[in-house]
Amino acid sequence: MLPVPLLKRKLLALLKEDLRFGDVSSQVIPRDQVCSAEIICKRGGIIAGLLETQLLFETMGVEVNISVQDGMEVQKGTIIVTLQGLARNILCVERTALNILHRMSAIATTTRKALNIARKVNPRVHIAATRKTTPGFRMFEKRAVILGGGDPHRWTLDDMVLLKDTHKAIFGGNITRMVQIARENTSFTKKIEVEVENLTEAVSAARAGADIIMFDNMTPEDISKALNELTRQNLRNNHIFEASGGLSFDTLAHYAATGIDVLSMGAITMYPSERVDLSLEIKLDVKPTP
């Protein structure tokens, strides 16, 4: 996660996008009007985005009291945040904060559900995200995956080498040569992952020295056969095996049962299915303006 000063700068940019030249609706409220407010859970799930919410409101001079922690499961009716400050400042932050909370909590809840399904049959499997994230919002979506119990996978293109079908096409399918060149031109600190579509490619990637081998759009049956053959050839150890493509809540258990190490899902960040509903309600501490 970014250091707090840099995180604040990122959050303020999101607030500025919504606020622009000011909240013209809240001009009807006296500048000195003070109120309190509560953010209440209307539909439960794994809450995520509380740190971001706190930083946003505090930046605008609002006192924040958080009653739960990021990554906790909350039930309907739970008051997760209480606020105290100038009404105008609370209202100008409201939508940006709720949007962040909704998006991150949906991702965290979807990740947790996927993890629970997979680990019922494979307690050691990891659920990972991908780089399929919203431009400009990746940091928050990846953090939500972590809070849901998942792995963020690579954050950026320079995190690791991931050789996909597009790279293979340029090399005419020569995985051995492709991995060799990647190794020669990459720091020893970076892992090399190769995407494969069948057993033959998996064996080639393993023999070429790939650190991680990703079975892409292969069925659970084909992955099981591939892992068994790799074990028979003494190529199962010293590699991490990942499956991606075709994963859903309905198929996760079947993929996890193959003994795979990692299941990566673009869906948990692109279109998380588990919605968490939150709302902000104003509580006046003084008489309303006549």
CATH topology title of the largest domain: TIM Barrel
Highest-level CATH class of the largest domain: Alpha Beta
Radius of gyration: 23 Å
How many distinct domains? Answer: 2
**Oligomeric description of these chains:** single chain
What is the general shape? elongated
The ordered string of helix (H) and strand (E) elements is: HEEHEEEHEHEHHEHEHEHEHE
Any overview of this molecule?
The chain folds into two domains: 4-114 and 274-284, Quinolinate phosphoribosyl transferase, N-terminal domain (Aldehyde Oxidoreductase, domain 3, Alpha-Beta Complex), CATH 3.90.1170; 120-270, Aldolase class I (TIM Barrel). It is elongated and about 75 Å long. The strands form three sheets. It has a six-stranded parallel β-sheet. Strands 3-5-1-12 form a four-stranded antiparallel β-sheet, with helices on one face. The protein has a two-stranded antiparallel sheet with strand order 2-4. It has helices at 4-19, 50-59, 87-119, 138-147, 165-170, 175-184, 199-208, 220-232, 252-256, 267-270, and strands spanning 34-43, 45-46, 63-66, 73-74, 79-86, 126-128, 161-163, 192-196, 212-216, 240-244, 262-264, 277-284. The two termini are 46 Å apart. The relative contact order is 0.16. With 290 residues, the chain is an alpha/beta fold. It has ten helices and twelve strands. Helix 1 packs across helix 3 (87-119), helix 3 (87-119) packs across helix 4 (138-147) and helix 7 packs across helix 8 (220-232). The model has no long low-confidence stretch (mean pLDDT 94).
